[in-house]
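Section 5.1 Outputs to date
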Amino acid sequence: MKNLLAGLLLALTAGCAGPDVQQYKAQQPALDLAAYFSGTTNAWGMFQRRGGEVVKRFHVVITGTPGDGTLVLDEQFRYDDGSSSRRVWRLARGQDGLWRGRADDVKGEALGEVAGNALRWQYTLLLPVDGTTYEMRFDDWMFLIDDCTMINRASMGKFGIELGQVTLMFRRRACGP
């Protein structure tokens, strides 16, 4: 019985393990988060339930304002059902090179690490659904494809169980359509 429990525990913890962002440190082009999001960036995305069903599509216009080791991202969302929302991130790069961020609908502090062309961004989003607010854990992975394009895949879950995924494609407005 002890062996069975140990095996189940090992399987569960192995399922939670993921890649380390540092494995991408040699990948090019290198992501400079503040430079990429400086100015206006458009993003198009969708949310899929765990089974793969697309339940929401959206467009985001992001206005990025970099400062000395800081970055403000003003995100204006427009959803396929005609609704809209806004999130303003206030990010700061720490002495350790990690990015830390806050937004009104984020519980506590978000933490991001950049290596090569990748950013891993983790946070807990306060997600309102039908009058109730749920704390959803996000694990975002962003990959810079070229100077103009970045792709983002985020896993959304609660209690260690993935409930869905968000996929986004970013395009800097300075690069054209």
